[in-house]
Amino acid sequence: MAFPRRLFRPSNVVVLGLALVMMSRVAEVAARGKIYSLEPRRGLLQEAGVVDVTSFGAKANDPLFDNAQAFIEAWNAACKGPGPAKLVIPPGSYITGAVVFQGPCTSSPVTVEVQGTILALPDPSVYTNGDWFTIEMVDGIVFKGGSIHLNKAQNVAIDGVTSLNSMGFHVAMTFSSNITATKLNLTAPGDSPNTDGIHISTTSSVNISDSFISTGDDCLGIIQGASDISVTGIQCGPGHGISIGSLGKYPNEQDVRGVHVKNCTLTGTTNGVRIKTFPGKLQLEASDIVFEDIVMNNVANPILIDQYYGFHQKLSASRVKVHDVHFRNIRGTSASLVAVSLACSSLFPCEGIELADIDLSYTGRKPLPISASCTNAKPTFSGKQNPPSCALI
Ligand SMILES: *[C@@H]1O[C@H](CO)[C@@H](O)[C@H](O)[C@H]1NC(C)=O
Ligand SMILES: *[C@@H]1O[C@H](CO)[C@@H](O)[C@H](O)[C@H]1NC(C)=O
Ligand SMILES: *[C@@H]1O[C@H](CO)[C@@H](O)[C@H](O)[C@H]1NC(C)=O
Ligand SMILES: *[C@@H]1O[C@H](CO)[C@@H](O)[C@H](O)[C@H]1NC(C)=O
């Protein structure tokens, strides 16, 4: 089956109806697995599925205008279309309060293209639950630009998000699956509290790659109910590092299983790669975790399992079982003298911990030797061990 090219060339307004019909033919063909590549051009065909927020009343560069309503109406128009749709936020700055892009949509895929900059309202108290952009119950969306909360979303790709502003924009994922996020630049001031760059909970099949994250909290927080999470090519810092947990504080938390963190660089963070759990009643597991090919630059606690999180004295033990955790090829510099610290639970000791090819040195002015500390853990060691393996102590 072949489309005569000339049918796509919009020459006058009369072609509009035809272009719309052809558009849905293309969608049908694409759905059957054949993709026709159309040259990008500014024509009626391309614009048929395009929804521009300004045609729904959005105003750029007006610091007093809240664009939330216009964004939501434009979203609804894009979402309820017949074929592929694109929501465009053109160049310029747009102030907006809380926005929820809600599905299910009839059009698919829906691409949200942010050409301009979206700014939050300066007063954070207007965001009742702290969320700025929320995407709910949408199956198949491609997001280009902005910052978001994905809730009950599936099959979502986020590409090239730049976040600015003091609200500490971030990407949160809850009750979602099959999320790909790449080329994100998430920056928030180093002193912004509790703003993980990317926060993942109750979500499976996530692939995060090639991103730059600098926040006041964890660059990446992988929390309860996260599974099958792949993270590569992240540059993190400043902030608190890449964390699994904290776990075991709230009722009804679910296990974390299957996390692969590879080829990441942490710079000036308070922790490198860590697993943190609370002492308490809740019984949970964190398992099948690999941290590999990680570079630490002046990181305070490069390798850390902390099952006494938030407790200075070991008053009670955590019931989170940490097992099958691999630290491989982790090198660079530590800003503290205990570069490897595995503080596991006395009730549920860590099992299946591997330390392979660890090479960390101290950044302090004096050339002091660094050490590794292991409690309630019997790791296996291979390759280089600097600091010296805690098995020798
Ligand atoms: C995952 O989502 C992408 C869109 O980002 C989609 O193309 C792909 O088919 C989905 N994979 C599965 C297994 O559903
Ligand atoms: C990320 O964004 C910040 C703030 O807008 C900017 O200064 C920085 O150059 C960006 N980094 C990358 C890698 O794009
Ligand atoms: C995740 O994405 C990266 C970069 O796009 C890719 O190389 C890698 O294979 C993906 N991993 C998985 C598990 O899908
Ligand atoms: C590792 O990550 C960096 C980005 O931090 C990327 O440029 C590089 O290609 C990645 N290397 C591999 C082997 O994936």
UniProtKB/TrEMBL annotation:
Keywords per UniProt: Cell wall, Cell wall biogenesis/degradation, Glycosidase, Hydrolase, Secreted, Signal
InterPro entries recorded: Glyco_hydro_28, PbH1, Pectin_lyas_fold, Pectin_lyase_fold/virulence
SMART domains for the chain: PbH1
Cellular localisation: Secreted, Cell wall
GO molecular function annotations of the record: polygalacturonase activity
One GO process term, biological-process aspect: cell wall organization
Signal sequence, start to end: 1-31
Active-site residues, record numbering mapped to chain: 240
Family recorded in the similarity comment: Belongs to the glycosyl hydrolase 28 family.
Protein name according to UniProt: Exopolygalacturonase-like
Biological source species: Punica granatum
Higher taxonomy: Eukaryota, Viridiplantae, Streptophyta, Embryophyta, Tracheophyta
